[in-house]
Structures are given as structure tokens and as C-alpha cells.
Amino acid sequence: MIQTSDTEVADTLPDLFTTEFMEAAQRLRLVAKRVAPRGRFADQRSKTKGSGLEFQDYRPYTHGDDMRAIDWTVYQRLGRVFVRLFEEHEDLPLYLVPDVSKSLWIESPPRVVAGLQAALALAAVSLGAHDSVGVFPFADDLSVLQRPTSGKGRLTSLAARMQTIQPGGTTDLRQSLRRLGGMRLREGLVVILSDFFDEGGLEAVEEAVRSVRHKVLLVQLMRPSDREPKALIGDLRLVDCETRDAQDVSISPAVIQRYQAAYDRFSEGLAALARSRQAGLLALDVEADVVPQIATLFENGRREV
Domains along the chain? Predict the structure, then answer.
């Protein structure tokens, strides 16, 4: 992303979660519930067979099996005793990993606002399904804002916690996800909300995401001007908003074309990474309403994760 020297970093967050936003997030729960049992983004199934609701298979009866599981219809047809097996559903922990690095606090509106709003909207769905939610903001390292907890009533307190987040430093996705992996969290869904502009480039992003042992959803925080920078022409000094490194550049139409080609390669690489990990990828326009964009994850009668 091209950054000019006149960028300023906000010291605090604006009012992230207005009454209107919280009402929209609550309505998102209803959208999700129409799509999936208990409104989940993805089904987490246990490895053990039990007496859950979904039929899975048959197996021959053995001593000690529950007599209520015997399928007498099969016995009448085959003369052998079989028991019905069912697959039990477990809750799906949701681990929200929002990028709060310094670069996300510039521009108007700051990307960090859309990222945290998207995180809270997803938390609303998960908490409404009685799943646990943990929040782990990251920049050059990962921190713990909230350890996994469940309960519909937790949404308001979670919003209050997220409102207190402060700007971080540079972006280091590898270190941050390495720290997440060291927490040995129960298998769940990790949602990374970031522009993915890591100083290590796409290679660093790929290495970091491939190290995650959970299901993954990537939420790319973008705006149209990322690819189509405006009002940049002539001789300019571009300053990296995180490292403060400066570069003098003569910007011409040919330079813009090369930049757009590089941006397209980055976007295509991110999409390829998602496909290789069988992960979800949502390009979130930070200049548009967040909740309707999150709702697209549940469109067409199925979850996109």
C-alpha cells in the first residue's frame, strides 16, 4: 500500500459499537441461525460415536451396548443384531485475531475500526450459539484481550474490552501466530482480521497462516484506493507508516501500473493461500457497512467457512 508522509495515527478508537451497530450484530445471529444448526460458521464433530442427533453408521452389537440403540428393523430383516451410531456435535471455539498494528490506525476511517467491528459481529454469532470466544489482538506480537469464554450476555462486556484497544507497533504475523500456537488452545476456528501488509511480504503471511493448526478464516481489510491510489503524481517522498522509512519516488502512469500489477499478485497469492489451506477468505471494504458484508459468509443456505 502506498503511504504518504502526512498520515497520522489516532491515539484512541472512536465509538466503535454504537446502538445501531449492536442491534445489527444481534440481528446477524438470526441470519446465521437460519443457515446452520446453532448458527455456527463450521461444524465441529466429535471423534467418538454416541447418542447425538445425527445418524452416522451401524455396527454389530457387543456386550454392554445400550439396548435402546439396537435397530430391530435390521434384526428382523437380517437376523443379526446391530446398533445405530450417531455423531455428536461439539461446540466450536472461536479465536478472533485482529490486527491492531500502527498502520491500521491511519486514514479515515481507520481500518482498525472495521476490523474490530467485524470481530464483534462474528463474536455475536458464536456467543449466540453458546460457543466460546477468545480475542487475541496482534501487531509485532500477540496479546490476550479475552481468554475463551461463552454466554450470550458476554457480548456487551466484550465490546467494552475491545473499545480499550490501543495502537500496536509493526506487523509481524509470524511471531504473533507462533505465540497463538504456543497457547495450545482447543481446536477451533481462527479468524485473522488484517490488511496482511506484513513487512516480510506475502511469504511471511503464507508461513504464518500455514502454521495454524485450527480451521482458518482470513478477513482482508481493504479499500478501493489500495489498488487505485489517487492524487499521487510527480516527485513524492513516501514514508512507511510503521517503520518511518522514507523513499523518494517519481510517480508516473507507468509506475502506477507496476504498482497495480504487484498489488494484484499479492491479492492472488492471498487467495491461493486460502485455497491451499481450505480456508475462508472475505475481502472486507472498510469504507462500507461491516455487518452486511459479514452476513455474506452465511449466504446461499450454507456457511462459507
Answer: 19-42+92-301 (3.40.50.410), 48-89 (no CATH)
